[in-house]
Design goal:
Layout (H helix, E strand, L loop, with lengths): L3 E5 L6 H12 L2 E4 H9 L3 H23 L6 E4 L8 H10 E7 L2 H8 L14 H18 L2 E4 L5 H11 L1
Parallel strand pairs: 1-3, 1-4, 2-3, 4-5
Length: 167
C-alpha cells in the first residue's frame, strides 16, 4: 500500500495495539511517535514535559510528522494530542489517511488507570477528568479524521479489517 495510516485518538483508545496488528497482519512499517521522540530525545515523555513543557513536546511531534512525508506503507501510532495542531493534520493528510479510534471514557480509564507515563493524567486519573478532556479534544479528532472507528467491544482484528477495507 502506498498510503500511510495515522492513528489518532485519546490516550488508551487502542492506537498502539491497532498499529502493531496492522504491522503484523498487513506487513506495514510501524512508527510509535512517543517511542520515536523518546529515542531521539534520550528521555521519557514525562521528563520532556517536566523539563521543557508541553509546547516543546508538541513541536517535537510536528517535526516528526514533517519528517515522515516521504514514507510509504507505514502505520503511525500518534500521541493523543497530535490532532490538536492544524499543521500536524496537514502533514498527516499530505501523505496518508487519518483514522480516529474512539472509546468511551470508562474504557479509557480502565485501560490507563495503572500507568504512570501519561503526564496529562498524573494526579487526574479519574473518569470525570478523562471525559472532560475527551470532550475538549473531540471536535479536533472528528475534523481531522478520514475514518472514525469505535474500539469498545470490537476485536483488534475487526478494527484492522475495517481500517484496511477503507484504505
Amino acid at each position: 500500500m502506498s498510503k500511510n495510516i495515522f492513528l489518532i485518538g485519546f490516550m488508551g483508545a487502542g492506537k498502539s495495539t491497532i498499529a502493531r496488528t496492522l504491522r503484523d497482519e498487513y506487513g506495514m512499517r510501524l512508527i510509535e511517535m512517543d517511542e520515536q521522540i523518546e529515542s531521539q530525545e534520550g528521555r521519557t515523555i514525562s521528563q520532556i514535559f517536566a523539563e521543557d513543557g508541553e509546547d516543546y513536546f508538541r513541536s517535537l511531534e510536528t517535526r516528526l510528522l514533517v519528517d515522515l512525508a516521504n514514507e510509504k506503507n507505514t502505520v503511525v501510532s500518534c500521541g493523543g494530542g497530535v490532532a490538536m495542531r492544524t499543521e500536524n493534520v496537514a502533514a498527516m493528510r499530505a501523505c496518508g489517511r487519518i483514522v480516529y479510534l474512539s472509546a468511551a471514557p470508562e474504557t479509557i480509564y480502565e485501560r490507563v488507570r495503572h500507568t504512570h507515563n501519561r503526564p496529562l493524567l498524573e494526579g487526574n486519573m479519574n473518569v470525570e477528568y478523562i471525559e472532560a478532556m475527551m470532550k475538549k479534544r473531540l471536535p479536533k479528532y472528528l475534523e481531522a479524521a478520514d475514518l472514525t472507528v469505535e474500539t469498545d467491544g470490537t476485536s483488534t482484528l475487526q478494527i484492522c479489517q475495517e481500517i484496511f477495507a477503507y484504505m
